[in-house]
Amino acid sequence: MKPQHVAIIMDGNGRWAQRRLLPRSAGHRAGFRRMLELSEYAFESGVKCLTLYALSAENLRRPQEELDELFGIFREYFSAQTEKLHRRGIRILSIGDRTLLPEDIQGRIAEAENATAGGTVGTLVLAIAYGGRQEIVAAVNRAVRAGREVTEEEFSSLLYTGSLPPPDLLIRTGRETRLSNFLLYQSAYTELYFSKKLFPDFTKGDFDKALKEYSLRDRRFGRV
Ligand code: IPE
Ligand code: IPE
Ligand code: MG
Predict the structure, then answer these.
(1) Which ligand is nearest to the CA of 180?
(2) Which of 71, 79, 116, 137 is deepest in the core (most CB within 10 A)?
(3) What value does the mean pLDDT take over residues 13-40?
């Protein structure tokens, strides 16, 4: 079985740079190139939805210099990729608390989402300024404002991910074996795959390996 929805925690950029005695920004640049390659490859491999964890809400506590570098990469991403993704029929969505981002980036995200809204080939979800706990609390508050109890299905639709299916496979690169506040609610039955490779070193072949391992997993969802 192939996963329809793959999520990736793209971790290890900083260590990749440190090992080469380069500034962390060089690692983010290398990770960015890898992200472009893998997002193209994932859709070619039949994945319908790809969610990439690009910046956590907690990452916003990093030094301003590093954040500025990351914001520069996001600006470049949206200017250069929106049209390309649109042509390929890929819809862009962004999840997270965008009010925490510089205003011009908020605008670029909205433009990218609008320009690609009609895409039917696949969905690329960018988690930027994203936090799973914050997402759950925001959904609870929306439910409270609506003034009535909600079903599990209705609650899911109140999350940033709305009507997207939950991830089938979650890949984390960079050696750590934790979720770091990513898709906490949605990953209840997601298959987890941890790679020791730092994200800039994570190749298409490594992605294939993760898909292969997924195909061997037995997803029981509590049944026998
Ligand atoms: C992941 O790489 C990218 C972001 C969190 C923005 P890191 O920057 O966390 O890299 P390491 O974990 O320090 O190596
Ligand atoms: C998780 O990586 C966030 C992203 C990859 C965007 P971190 O590097 O922030 O995670 P921790 O701090 O090691 O848990
Ligand atoms: Mg990290």
Answers:
(1) 2
(2) 116
(3) 98
